[in-house]
Amino acid sequence: MTVVAVRVLTIADYDQAMAVWQRSGLHSLRPSGRDSREAFAEQLTSGTQKLIGLELHGNLVGVVLTTHDGRKGWINRLAVLPELRRRGYAQQLVAEAERVLRSQGITVIAVLIEPDNQESLALFQQLGYAELPGMHYLSKRESADA
After folding, report:
1. Pairwise CA distance, residues 145 & 41, whole Å
2. Residue 119 in domain
3. pLDDT in tens, 57-78
4. How far, CA to CA in Å, does 23 sit from each of 67, 82, 100, 139?
């Protein structure tokens, strides 16, 4: 029997979450900056960020991060280990991310997907997310690790 559990993670799960992101090929990680253990601990205590994990037989195999600004929620860094993809685990993580954001009063949920990540684009479109034509994503950063 397959035992799957989805739960909100804590800073104690930091190393495992980073390992899932790294093994999944997520290249936006900034472990020396905004994703350092110290920065993550601070972000998790803010109340506006939740780290959600999917465990299979007690092993962390998927992770997603939710954030919000009080008006709009974001689903960030969705990752499932490559060898376990296409089994519905990403959908379970997205459903839990949406549930967590809605429980915080958030009714608009968004996601940014990198242009070469067609699998994620297809997943979110399948889940009812619509692309907004003509939108541009811009950012201003203090450093490459910000």
Report:
1. 16
2. yes
3. 999 999 999 999 999 999 999 9
4. 23, 8, 25, 26
Provide the strand spans (E) within the chain: 4-8, 49-56, 59-68, 72-80, 108-111
Within-domain flag for 131 = no
Q: How many CA atoms lie within 13 A of 24 on its CB side?
A: 25
CATH of the domain at 60: 3.40.630.30
- Is 139 contained in some domain? no
The answer to whether residue 106 is domain-embedded is yes
Identity of residue 140: K
The whole-model pTM stands at 0.90
DSSP 32-71: TTTTSHHHHHHHHHTSSEEEEEEEETTEEEEEEEEEE-SS
| pLDDT over 70 (residue 146) | no
